[in-house]
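Justification of computing resources. Each target in the renewal requires a structure prediction run like the one illustrated here; the chain below, 360 residues long, is used simply to show the kind of job we budget for.
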Amino acid sequence: MASELKVNTITEATAGSGITFAKDIIPATPLSHRNMMINGAMLVDQRKAGVLATNIGATDNDYRTLDRWRNIWTGGESARNSLQQVAITDLAGFSKALKIDCVTAEGGTQDADESFKMAYRFEGQDLQGMEKGFSSAKPVTVSFWVKGTASKTYMLELHQAKSTARHATQQFSVTASWVKHTYTFPGDTTNTINCDNAEGLELNLWLFAGSNYTSGSYTSKTWANVTTANRAVGISDSGKGLMNTTSDEVYFTGFQMELGSVATPFEHRSYGDEIIRCMRYCEVMTGTNVHGGLYNSSDHLGSWWFKVRKRARPTTTVSTGNQAAILNASSGDAGGTDSCYFTKTSGGMYIQNAKADCEL
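Resulting structure tokens:
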């Protein structure tokens, strides 16, 4: 008689009872590497090290503070905000948060094309487990913590910019106390995600939006072809949201996106793990790390070997400080994703601070 393979399933354990096993336990899903987001606990801020970045608005579509979190504006009005990594002591398990503060409110009539959102962009090759675009497409669950200075409604969006753009949206509320939100988005059988280092998906937090983005209809957690007017429906104060008054601010932390329809506890990584992951997209060099040597009769050449291979060839900038004699900084033209080179035409070379940036 053939032996029968028996599989035991644990459904519940009595609190405090304790369980021991004589056999191996093989989980159905991984116990680590569940969170597809980097820097979800807001631990890494290479660019500003917690220093306030203020007067941000108009077309300031870039990375100003926390690694992996991009601020995106449309329209040209005078509304401005500040961004900062801040310490928090009122949420168990988390010590840092992203604070977004309105410093210049939308004082007049809000133009239809105005908007502000924070965005997290995923590489397509990191999302293949979603099986998006196939009949077997998997759901994903997004969870995060948020609080603010007033009761507000904002919009969470998963957005795929492809030839036929797709998105799914979910309104979320903010109060004066920390609230954890958990939302499961179904698998989408339309539009595959390319397996490469380009943007495959964008997670957006819409905090301010004009009628171009709010005048449509709202459907919760449903994938559809993008209609611009449906992207930010329901933001408080007729779309002014975070930019309604200078008293408005909001805090975020504990972001996690994972496969499946269940939100597991937040996957805490060490700071060392997080900063290495962040350095794939941005690496800040501080201290006396680059010296140049003579490579012909008058010119000097210095090399900066990155600690982590970059996602793509980065843009390299130099903060000269008292090194005012630095004349040129290449953008990896002689080194690509592993290193870059600096040149100077006369005198010695000395670079103290530099940044290599290839964020999505």
